[in-house]
Amino acid sequence: DAKTTQPTSMDCAEGRAANLPCNHSTISGNEYVYWYRQIHSQGPQYIIHGLKNNETNEMASLIITEDRKSSTLILPHATLRDTAVYYCIVRVRETSGSRLTFGEGTQLTVNP
Amino acid sequence: NAGVTQTPKFQVLKTGQSMTLQCAQDMNHNSMYWYRQDPGMGLRLIYYSASEGTTDKGEVPNGYNVSRLNKREFSLRLESAAPSQTSVYFCASSASTGGEGTAGHEQYFGPGTRLTVT
Fold it and tell me: Where in A9-98 does DSSP place strands (E)?
C-alpha cells in the first residue's frame, strides 16, 4: 500500500485559498488519490479523487504532480465550516471491495 | 434518502457484555464497511463486505464479527466487550465492488456509534 505523508496542522484565513499538500512517493501506477475530510465528531465526507489529471468539483480542486508523487487539495475560498481534519488516501486495490487506509490527516483551522 | 444510518448513537457496556451495532444504507450500494476511530487517530478498517454474501477482514478484526444481512444492512457484533474496544464506530458504503478503473469508489459514512466499555 502506498503511504501518504501530510502536515499535522495548517491554518488559513477565511475567504482565502487553503492548499493542503500530500506526499505519496510510493504510489503505483493505477492507484487513485482520494481526499476525505472529517468535521469534529462527524463521519468522514468524500471530497474528490484523481488518478493522473487535475480534477475539480463543487467542493475543491485536486492538483497531482506529473510524477504522481505528491498532490495538493485546494479549497478556493475557505470558510469557517471548512475547519476539519483532511485525509489524503491512496486507494488499496482489491479484487473486490475498495478499502481506504486512513492516516492521521491534516487539521485545517480556518480563522475569521 | 437517509444515506447511511447507524444505531445506537451511544452505548455503554461492561467488560464481557455483548452487543450488535446496526448499519443500513438506502443507496443500493454493493460494498459496506466498518471502521473504528480511537481518540486523536485516523480510522481503521475492521471488516468489509464487497457485496451481499461476502465479508472480509480489515486491519483490526480481532474481537469482532460481522453479518451482511442483505444488500442494505451490515452489522458488527462484539461478543465479549473489552475496554480496548472503547471507540467511535463508523459504518460506510460504496457503489463499487472494486476492479481496475471502476467508478464509484467514494465511500459514504454514517454518523457513528460512540461506544464505551468499562
Answer: 9-13, 18-23, 33-38, 45-50, 55-56, 61-64, 70-75, 84-90
Quick one: pLDDT band at residue B106, thresholds 50, 70, 90? Answer: confident
Chain A residues touching B108 at Cβ < 8 A:
46
Please give the Cα distance from B106 to A102 (Å, whole number): 14
* Cβ within 8 Å, pair A102-B35: yes
Q: How many C-alpha atoms does B6 have within 13 Å on its Cβ side?
A: 27
Question: Is the model's pLDDT at B107 over the cut of 70?
Answer: yes
Q: State the Cα–Cα distance between residues B46 and B66, nearest whole angstrom.
A: 9
| Residue B45 pLDDT > 80 | yes
Q: What's the confidence (pLDDT) of residue A101?
A: 78
Residue B12 near residue B114 (C-beta atoms within 8 A): no
**What pLDDT sits at residue A2?**
66
Q: Which residues of A touch B31 (CB under 8 A)?
A: 97-98
Residue B118 C-alpha from the chain's centroid:
21
**Partner residue opposite A96 with nearest CB, options B51, B90, B111:** B51
User: pLDDT tens for residues A34-53?
Assistant: 999 999 889 999 999 888 88
Specify whether the CB–CB gap between A3 and A26 falls below 8 A: yes
CB contact residues (below 8 A), chain A span 35-54, against chain B:
36, 41-46, 49
The shortest C-alpha distance from B26 to chain A (Å) reads 17
Regions in chain A scoring below 50 on pLDDT = 95-96
